[in-house]
Design goal:
Length: about 300
């Protein structure tokens, strides 16, 4: 399938710039092209030459001019004919299967690590796609039927990841190492006013790596929530040292997977200097904040 049909489809929703098209294609879970500038603008030129698009330069006072592309009647007809054409069978090209095929040279522990990493990646993808589905990122809703179709596209993608996760768990069970992925994060699930969040008040080892953050994100996925409340005692000393980069990487993980995190810090002497400034800046956002009491943290999570 050519990227040109994806571009025609997107522009059928309304005029857009090349940058708009690039962003939509890059963020899409099923438009599989890289969406780089060369690929998109080359296709736009071809579509213009074929009379399937028109463009217009919009001049702006304080910012550079932008070129806006609009689909023509001929473009809509071409798109419709392609949509009506016969389908291609789905492809199953998975890098992980190639890795797994030659995993005989790995020890049991090394293979277990490979499977664990793949499981985490699948869980994170499920969480990410669920959030994109909830937020409706470029999901045209020109009719109830179109809204339903796009929702079911996300259902297809999420179920594919879920089936892959089920397959990995089955593989681990057959190989007898299904219990080797226990999380070091101890947490409880709290339901209040119809909302649910994960609360982490203790841990076998404090949060000292991105993997620990992924443990909490995975817990959110498994319990169908995007909110986590963390007590300060769960954070390692390295978290409070900016030079380690741990705080930044953990916060980035929460942001990447659309998990909102509230931290409860009560008179913690570790908050000082540049780290105090770092927290003050973080508190301006809507994905991570620090509070002096559980009540305040819970209030922000449940009523953003």
């Amino acid at each position: 399938m050519s990227i040109k049909y994806a571009i025609l489809g997107i522009l059928s929703c309304g005029p857009m710039t090349g940058y708009d098209l690039k962003k939509i294609i890059q963020d899409s879970p099923f438009m599989h092209w890289s969406g780089n500038n060369n690929q998109i603008y080359k296709s736009l030129v071809e579509l213009l030459n074929e009379g399937l698009l028109t463009n217009e330069v919009h001049h702006q006072e304080s910012t550079p001019s932008k070129k806006v592309y609009t689909i023509t009647r001929e473009g809509l007809d071409e798109l419709k004919e392609w949509v009506k054409s016969s389908n291609e069978a789905p492809e199953f090209k998975k890098t992980f299967l190639v890795q797994l095929a030659w995993s005989e040279q790995l020890s049991n522990d090394e293979l277990n690590t490979l499977l664990t990493q793949y499981e985490y990646e699948l869980k994170m993808q499920i969480l990410s796609q669920q959030e994109m589905r909830r937020r409706g990122i470029f999901s045209p809703k020109r009719s109830k039927r179109e809204e339903l179709i796009w929702d079911m596209i996300y259902e297809n993608i999420i179920s594919s990841y879920e089936n892959e996760l089920k397959w990995v768990k089955n593989l681990r069970g057959i190989m007898g190492n299904e219990d080797k992925e226990a999380s070091s994060m101890d947490y409880t699930v709290t339901v209040k006013d119809g909302n649910k969040y994960i609360e982490c008040a203790s841990a076998q080892t404090p949060i000292q790596s991105e993997q620990n953050a992924l443990d909490l994100i995975s817990a959110c996925l498994e319990n169908q929530t995007d909110m986590v409340l963390i007590h300060g005692d769960v954070l390692s000393d390295d978290f409070f040292k900016l030079k380690t980069g741990l705080a930044g990487s953990v916060l980035q993980k929460f942001s990447n997977y659309f998990v909102r995190a509230a931290v409860v810090m009560t008179d913690d002497q570790r908050i000082k200097g540049k780290f105090k400034d770092f927290l003050a800046e973080s508190n301006k956002g809507n994905s991570f904040r620090v509070f002096s009491s559980k009540e305040q943290a819970e209030g922000w999570l449940l009523n953003p």
